Amino acid sequence: MKDLRPILKSKRTLITSAATVTLLIAVYLVFFGSAGVDRGNGDGITPPVVAVNPLNVVESEPSGAIQYLNSRFPVKIKFDQKIDPEARTIFISIEPAIAFEKYTLTSDPTSVWLEPSPTLSNGWEFDTNYTITVTSGSRTQEGNVMKGNYTLSFINSISDNIVYPD
């Protein structure tokens, strides 16, 4: 009769090794989470991390409803974090639509300046109500996202001597 002890010993080693690997995977998942594991939607991709520090507008100029702006006056929108408009991650619309350029100053990387394009528009028209919207989805280079829209409205008056009715 053939001796079966070496075969049984090798099968026990294989079973013991599989149990050890399973135990190590379980310990890893307990201590390090399940990053990279499908969350149940079937795509096999871990959902992106939501920004902990959302982007916010903290100030804008001009402030107030009625302004007297020359046709090329830049509008300033200040954020609570550094932004880079060259990365095309700050989304802005102006109604009524005019062509504009957006830029930052190196001395103030938290602000975006909007200036009517000297070649594509006549600038801010007088007696016109403008609404500038920074839309949700705008983000910093670090990926912090703006959660809601920010709206600035003003009327560009033809005169800075405004008389209000009593």
UniProtKB/TrEMBL annotation:
Transmembrane segments: 12-31
Pfam families xref list: Big_5
Domain SbsA Ig-like: 53-154
Keyword Transmembrane helix: yes
Domain of life assignment: Bacteria
Keywords: Membrane, Signal, Transmembrane, Transmembrane helix
InterPro entries tied to this protein: Cu-Rt/internalin_Ig-like, SbsA_Ig
Coiled coil: none
Official protein name in the record: SbsA Ig-like domain-containing protein
